[in-house]
Amino acid sequence: IGAAKLVVVVAIFLLTFYVISQVFEIKMDANLGHIFAHLSLKFCYFLLTATKPPRYKCGISKACPEKHFAFKMASGAANVVGPKICVEDNVLMSGVKNNVGRGINVALVNGKTGETIDTKFFDMWGGDVAPFIEFLKSIQDGTIVLMGTYDDGATKLNEEARKLIAELGSTSITNLGFRDNWVFCGGKGIKTKSPFEQHIKNNKDTNKYEGWPEVVEMEGCIPQKQD
């Protein structure tokens, strides 16, 4: 707010001085007047850009502390726009990258280095839950796991799959239902429940889209795994 006020004050001062010089016919060469007006505009633009708020990794609202990975993610929008997962300013999954699909979308990240290990999606409406279960069992300790739903991520989920996801730190997976929107960030070998989880129920009375709830978004800073 202070920087914006400064810009306004300086702009008013410069423009006022220029107007006064014209009204009272203060001797000023025409070219010099144009140069002065041009420089005034450039100076105001400089102040505005110089005070532009900084951009943080993945577009999150504040910088992460040292030894933390920045992330931001969003569930799908109905069955039209796919989910998006970003870690350390790298978009791991999105519709633009053409690597998302109906069901549960999963990105695996190395908990020490922040490097991407794998990205996959599993159709929980028309697909088979068995490959998803095998995938969950194969995740190595120390891996960061990010998940987001698209269209429907729950119909084919069984008790075994839900239990494996709960072991990654999820608390909402037991209640995930047909066409609910859900995003989650946990880890293999986590000792506590993850603080990174958002869940919106599919409810015809509150849905933003016909048959689907609104998009759910989440951002945060994941602690780097220490030896």
TrEMBL record:
PROSITE patterns to which the protein is assigned, alphabetical: GG_LECTIN (PS52031)
One Pfam family named in its UniProt record: ILEI
Gene Ontology molecular function: carbohydrate binding
Domain ILEI/PANDER: 102-189
Annotated signal peptide: none
Subcellular location: Secreted
Gene Ontology, cellular component aspect: extracellular region
Keywords for this protein: Disulfide bond, Lectin, Secreted, Signal
UniProt entry tagged with the keyword Signal: yes
InterPro entries named among the record's database cross-references: FAM3 (IPR039220), ILEI/PANDER_dom (IPR039477), ILEI_FAM3C (IPR039475)
Family, as annotated: Belongs to the FAM3 family.
Name of protein: FAM3C protein
